[in-house]
Protein 1
Amino acid sequence: MERARPLPTRRRLLQSAALAAVPYALLPDARAGAQVQAVDHPSAEWQPATTANYTGHTGTPRPAGRPVDRVIIHVTQTAYAATLSIFQNPRKQVSAHYLVRSSDGHVAQSVRESDVAWHAGNWEYNTRSIGIEHEGWVDRPGCFTDVMYEASAGLTAAICTRHGIPKDRAHIIGHDEVPGTDHTDPGPNWDWARYLRLVNLV
């Protein structure tokens, strides 16, 4: 049996009216706590891809015999916000674990590391790798900023540590090195020597 609800007091009515007048933009994000818990990389922001764009294994290991042993470097060929929109569009059938912004090195995580993102264009490589997208275009070297290199290198170093991946060019590869791909990223303007040096400084 439902208990009778007490009538609201004048104070409660005033508080409710005041709260209703506060713009929603000023209220705390109800998902803020969940966003912090969701990320694998502490400084990343959780910007989830739609579940239609990756293979989920959250809470359980990846498929048996498929330990993570590669980090694959990508370049988006579009803007940061547009990339997140693509990951969130179920018709696109693509995602990456992380996205690094050009202007300030901000890192977004879109797929958990325990899940298989669809980024490599090769299922075998998808199941055993972490994909990192970088905002920019392969023919615009100015997109590859100092802060982007530094943030991405820190991310890659942490991924390698978490998964026991050697920090070398055999295990940190470009999308263009994936067998069967027709992609050219990260392209000739990506400074591999600098990147690997930064990864190994962390």
Protein 2
Amino acid sequence: MEYYSWILTFHIVAVMSWMAMLFYLPRLFVYHVENIDKEEYVKIVKIQEYKIYKYIGMPAMWATIISGTVMIYLAEDLFKTGVWLHAKLTVVIVLIIYSYSLEYFRKNLANNVCKRSGKFFRAYNEIPTLLAILIVTYVVVKTVSVTFTLAMILLFTFIIYMIMKPKRAKNEQ
């Protein structure tokens, strides 16, 4: 257990790096699709998308998974502290799936076959924020509030709706 704090520190830094990619890559996708007619710009954005995913995001994700697994192995009694760890791990699995979905979109954008809009990627960019809020809350509070979880899901559903809803023409207002 003497190394637990060191592993926890590494885990937190890895999570921060992973989250940086999860927050920034969809934003690059927005710039990519909204400037698709600017060939030189898109060429640079494609390089940025590739590098942030391959050189920052994926190594950080795996560092997070490995360090988290080691922490659970060293302190397996964590599973006896309540359902919060199970909930956190469930949300982490969703975050991992989200990470791989970013690679799917990155490849489609790189091959010029992505048909998604800037609005879509703005909305999609809200997902890691919701998941991060849930994970941090479960870890800090060490409990799972169904009310809080549902409130956050509803809040982010509303935010995504507001991003995705069509803008009304000025003459309709």
